Amino acid sequence: MYKVLISDAMSNVADQIFNDKGIEVDVITGLSEQELINIIPEYDGLLVRSATTVTADILAAATKLKAIARAGAGVDNIDCARARENGVVVMNTPGGNTNATAEHAFALIMAALRKIPFADETTHKGEWQKKAIKGVELSKKTLGIVGFGNIGARLSHLVSGFDVNVLVCSKSLESRQAEFPHVTNVSFDELLAQSDIISFHGKAAADGKPLVNKEHLAKMKSSAIIINAARGNMVDESDLNDALNEGLIAGAAIDVFSTEPAKENVLFNNPKAILTPHLGASTAEASIVVAEMAANQVADVLQNNVEIHVVN
Ligand code: MLT
């Protein structure tokens, strides 16, 4: 009988799928690297979200392991190259949390433009800050989307009722432009200079180097806001903090951090930064879909030799 480990919290729809398919499943979360190394030799499959880091040492101990599924999109917590060398297929669940993440980015845009967190905090305290809080409308603004994959494309559709001018900087758009008549492809510098809001939805660079630093922030409008619901190291946090303090840009709403869970961060307590704890995919709907996809994909590899959404 095949045996699968679920090492991060996820919808119990995943364990139900394994039970139904006659695959033994253990759900053990919060394991240290050493604890995982000790037990991984028992398992044929592994399901993770982002809390488990699948290191080369864990993979070296995983003598039976055939498949790892990431319930989510990003696989930066898995040593994919090492897994491939060891004959372990790594899969993600593309599309499973696309809408959830695009909607969170949209919520962050509106929260920043209308200063909702400050309004909420001060109203709870009995301060009536009505005169101090003047928002900005999304309507007729220019939204720059960096990374035009599933999530960026979904965001471009979500804002379509707001007469927003959508700019993207995408090498692959040329062949897909017919599908996206509502977006304009421009250079990265044009996107930086023309956008009122810039929202990040790409992958972080493999070398971990931020895509955006002080030099880029200086090219933006002083009224612009940055939204990052992709990966923390896409925008240099220290440069972003300086840019907010020096008035190079007006605000930021950030869901992802260079180190997560973020216990300390240079952006903490900056009043121009709205921060959320990597909630992009955290919806009732998406958590079920990604768990379901991940479990079915691992079961398919083990029982039917079928591999989909392979990333390594
Ligand atoms: C993802 O990569 O799918 C997202 O960042 C969501 C998550 O891991 O929570």
Q: What is the CATH T-level topology of the largest domain?
A: Rossmann fold
Discrete helix count: 12
The level of helicity is 25-40%
CATH architectural name of the largest domain:
3-Layer(aba) Sandwich
The total of beta strands comes to 12
CATH superfamily of the largest domain: NAD(P)-binding Rossmann-like Domain
What's the shape? globular
Cα-to-Cα separation, first versus last residue: 26 Å
SSE pattern, N- to C-terminal: EHEHEHEHEHHEHEHEHEHEHEEH
Largest sheet: 7 strands, parallel
Bound molecules: D-malate
Secondary-structure-derived class: alpha/beta
Strand content: 5-15%
Radius of gyration: 21 Å
Strand order of the largest sheet: 8-7-6-9-10-11-12
* Rounded average pLDDT: 96
Number of domains: 2
CATH class of the largest domain: Alpha Beta
As residue ranges, the low-confidence spans are none
In short:
The protein is of the alpha/beta class. Helices cover 34% and strands 15% of the residues.
